[in-house]
Amino acid sequence: MKVLIVDDEPPARDRLRELLGRLPDHEPCGEAGNGADALRLAANLQPDIVLLDIQMPGLDGLEIARRLATLPHPPALIFVTAYSEHALDAFDTHAVAYLLKPVRLERLEQALISASRLNRAQLTSLTAEREETGRTHLRARLGQRLELIPLADVYYFQADQKYVVVRHRHGEALIEETLKTLERELGNRVIRTHRNALAMVAQIAGLEKTTDESTRLIFQEIPDRLEVSRRHLPAVRKCLKLL
Prior knowledge:
Blueprint: E1 2-6, H1 10-20, E2 27-32, H2 35-45, E3 49-52, H3 61-68, E4 76-81, H4 87-92, E5 97-100, H5 105-116, H6 120-133, E6 137-142, E7 145-150, E8 154-160, E9 163-168, E10 171-175, H7 179-186, E11 190-194, E12 197-200, E13 204-209, E14 215-219, E15 225-228, H8 233-242
Parallel strand pairs: 1-2, 1-3, 3-4, 4-5
Antiparallel strand pairs: 5-7, 6-7, 8-9, 8-12, 9-10, 11-12, 13-14, 14-15
Helix pairs in contact: 2-3
Pfam families: LytTR, Response_reg
Organism: Candidatus Competibacter phosphatis
Keywords: DNA-binding, Phosphoprotein, Two-component regulatory system
């Protein structure tokens, strides 16, 4: 995978180049210290991935990211910065990952693997798909990293104090959005099963009764069971009849 490094600080570029040299499946194809050079190199070199700082003179990283998204073959974006407060804005530009400096090799490698999962066709259609069908990914915090989880991989959401746990195809993750916000934004793609839980309708396999006469939702592909409250049971049954 070809990687373009964009950072206005030479030591930061040196560090990223050195880390990439230790990862056999990725190689730097160019470096830029400002936005104009970054856009020119991206258009000419067509990198698969761009490692992008946010705070730079002239065009900042967020604006660069928005312009890169308009290229005929947009690269996957990984933000590398010292400032965590830009994380949500970064993911609004469809960044694949967000790394805080100083970057560690294992975190960079994980982010590059995530970026490599997206082929060029997926990257090209990501913005258009979001405009047409609504959100396609969730922003999840994994330690100090933030990553994108495709909604197509999500089974259900469950509130846990001030966070929401997302159960997805590859495990669990925490997000900082509320169930109410998710329910409003995702609309009929989710169904409320309990005051503390939402299920993705496309992933539901059916209902089952337990020995204590409570009702549980069962899912395709995973053994998890999600409680359905008496209050929400009629709506869930009606939803399943329409599937």
